[in-house]
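seq as requested:
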Amino acid sequence: MKKARLALFVGIMCISIFPILVKMALTPGLISAFYRMLFSFLLLLPYVFFKRQLELPSFRVVLLAALCGVIFGSDVAVWNIAIQASTATQASLLTNLSPVWVGFLSLIFLKDKPKSNFWIGTTVAVFGMIMLVGFSIFKNLDFDLGFNFAVLSGIFYAIYMLLSKHVLKYMKVTSFMLISLAASSIYLGIISFALNQPFYGFSNEGWLVLFAQAAICQLLAWSLISYATQHMRATRVSVSLLAQGVLASVLAWLLLDETLTFQMVVGGFFLLWGIRITFYDKQLISNVLKNTKALSLTKK
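struct tokens:
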């Protein structure tokens, strides 16, 4: 469990770099998503081939892994469109409601129902996220295409988390990543071609950013997050991913000279506290209460 939590922490650190790279705006959003998947696939392929890591348990499992790739690709695509159609703040806030969707979907489809600490922690974390992006966003909340696509992105994200959790019971992380990345690359490539997105003509810095997105924000980050998903509850992983908002804000403050207000700091505290609540073990709390009671009796 400690290895899974460490993998999750490092994975979140890696994906927190992504907004900084996107804000450089060196390539169109949709085509950057395509190259993010394609370059990740090309980097992973030699390792899987030479290490003989590819596992194909059954056609059904392989098909589900490919479906995960399509869903994740859809998430990235509609999130990029949401940012372009509205604002990055609104899109990020609505997309990060994905833990709520994960909880509701788990409640309906999974035997392992979310515990009360998940709902409490999610509520606190979402409140922290709202403080982090600012309450003023609700004054300008437009229920337009950008709003709908941002909500849809969060739903895609939630479905991906739960479906990948199921698939990873039968496959190694490397096999899952290779198949899902291949499916994402083909899917996003077709969409980009249909929408006449430019596949070349970028600056050297633009290509470097695309490679960094693939190597760090996709391949390394999601290999670690997939490992964590394999060994932890999908609900906990989904809430923990909200921490990227805090880290991204700190990085933007350090690297892009963006403002970091007291309200954002307090919001970040609530967000991280909410995540911590979801990790509280019921047995651990029970033991603490028993020890406290025993200690009080001893004093008497």
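The chain has one domain: 2-299.
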